[in-house]
């Protein structure tokens, strides 16, 4: 049996409001979800970890919950994790390599790697590290727009890449958190890559699509065009701000305000009519009536501000609609806000949809992860599978990336599904 049939991966997305773990069995490129666990996280702010011991507690609790659902035979030692926050930035770079004349002029993986290495060799401040190097095109002897030159003939290989870097200390804090929770971190991926990979169709990425992940503490923008990630930007505004704006209006606790926002929050007054809601006081001993439509102005204010920031970032980068012809995909928990789809349609134009992990990528417990707030965690597994599948080193059987499955577990899995 090949290694691919034996692999189980555990992915941990440390979000500003929650940590979510997905344990999945990898079958080829299919993600078979066998366990999901979520835990509230009070150890992060605006996408980065602010309290390692609290974040570690949440990581451990979420992994253990997922493990419990996956079955007692599943033991998680190694995980892949996500990193978020506005310190994540991308820059374009260019690399060149020339094949030596003594060689046959057929391009190999090693040649591609050399071109990428050359693109990576640019000055990087000491406090930053490279997280992703994404080739956007190869140019072979002057011919551009080549996605994969493997096996082609050529002498001069150039590549355009998009390099994502992060602040070393903040990336290190994710590692420390995972370690404190008792796990080994095998790989780390940025959150917008996770969200994009889970929710976007291949033809959207080809034509051009703008992903907007509205989380609790950040809103992540990612632009895909011609099948490659072209731009990311993390805006440090998310759903927590909306809740914060509503607290004085509702005159109750933050957690009750959060519940009210999720249940009744909306952007368009007319969608609420004359509906009256009852707002509990902070001790939940009495309630106060209010028109549901009165929530809208507060929420709208923050959403307008957020989308002004999104538009400003796109403008600064020279990104116009021609680069996202397939439209906009909204994901993250904030995408569930009533009226948001309409707002984005009216405010930004083009086609807009809500993104959840695509069903075609996932088997097993799809109905559990079929939600915008789980895009990142499912997507980092998808990215992991693609990256390691591509490099033909999906799994080291010596306990490297993934937790190996024993025959007993395999039997359990085959009975279960
Ligand atoms: N129905 C809803 N209406 C409005 N907002 C909602 C709704 N459901 C969830 N949210 C908001 O979504 C946010 C959480 O989203 P998500 O789980 O994607 O964030 P996160 O991953 O923890 O944070 P981040 O990605 O910013 O680090 C919260 O602010 C929550 O209030
Ligand atoms: Mg998130």
Features:
single chain, 417 residues, Dna Ligase, domain 1, Nucleotidyltransferase, domain 5, 5-stranded mixed sheet, 12 helices, 34% helix, globular, disordered C terminus, binds magnesium ion
Q: Given the helix and strand composition, which structural class is it?
A: alpha/beta
User: Beta-sheet strand percentage?
Assistant: 25-35%
CATH architecture of the largest domain: 2-Layer Sandwich
Give the count of structural domains: 3
Principal-axis shape equals globular
| N- and C-termini, Cα separation | 19 Å
- Please state the CA-atom Rg, rounded to the nearest Å: 23 Å
- How many E strands? 20
Largest sheet: 7 strands, mixed
**Poorly predicted sequence stretches spanning 5 or more consecutive residues:** 391-417
Bound molecules: adenosine-5'-triphosphate, magnesium ion
Briefly, what CATH class of the largest domain? Alpha Beta
């Amino acid at each position: 049996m090949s290694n691919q049939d034996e692999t189980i991966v555990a992915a941990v997305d440390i979000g500003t409001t929650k940590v979510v773990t997905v344990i999945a069995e990898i079958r080829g490129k299919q993600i078979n979800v066998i366990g999901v666990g979520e835990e509230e996280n009070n150890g992060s702010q605006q996408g980065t970890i602010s309290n390692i011991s609290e974040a570690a507690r949440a990581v451990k609790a979420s992994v253990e919950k997922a493990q419990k659902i996956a079955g007692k035979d599943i033991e998680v030692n190694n995980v892949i994790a996500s990193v978020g926050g506005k310190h994540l930035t991308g820059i374009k770079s260019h690399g060149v390599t020339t094949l030596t004349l003594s060689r046959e002029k057929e391009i190999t993986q090693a040649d591609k790697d050399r071109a990428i290495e050359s693109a990576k060799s640019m000055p990087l401040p000491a406090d930053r590290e490279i997280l992703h190097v994404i080739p956007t095109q190869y140019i072979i002897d002057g011919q551009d727009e080549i996605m994969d030159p493997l096996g082609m003939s050529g002498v001069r290989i150039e590549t355009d890449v998009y390099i994502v870097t992060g602040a070393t200390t903040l990336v290190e804090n994710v590692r420390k958190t995972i370690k404190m929770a008792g796990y080994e971190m095998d790989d780390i991926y940025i959150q917008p890559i996770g969200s994009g990979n889970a929710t976007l169709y291949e033809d959207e990425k080809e034509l051009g699509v703008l992903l907007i992940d509205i989380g609790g503490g950040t809103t992540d923008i990612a632009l895909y065009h011609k099948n490659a990630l072209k731009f990311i930007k993390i805006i440090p505004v998310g759903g927590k701000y909306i809740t914060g704006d509503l607290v004085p209006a509702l005159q109750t606790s933050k957690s009750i305000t959060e519940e009210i926002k999720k249940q009744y929050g909306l952007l368009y007054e007319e969608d609420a009519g004359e509906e009256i809601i009852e707002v509990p006081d902070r001790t939940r001993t009495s309630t106060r009536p209010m028109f549901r439509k009165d929530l809208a102005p507060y929420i709208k204010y923050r959403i307008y501000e957020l989308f002004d920031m999104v538009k400003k970032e796109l403008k600064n980068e020279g990104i116009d609609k021609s680069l996202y012809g397939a439209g906009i995909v909204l994901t993250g928990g904030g995408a569930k806000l009533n009226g948001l789809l309409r707002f984005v349609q009216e405010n930004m134009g083009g086609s807009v949809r809500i993104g959840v992990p695509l069903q075609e990528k996932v088997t097993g417990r799809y109905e559990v992860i079929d939600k915008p707030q789980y895009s990142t965690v499912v997507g980092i597994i998808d990215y992991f599978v693609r990256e390691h599948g591509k490099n033909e080193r999906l799994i080291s059987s010596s306990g490297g990336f993934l937790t190996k499955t024993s025959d007993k577990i395999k039997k359990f899995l085959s009975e279960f599904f």
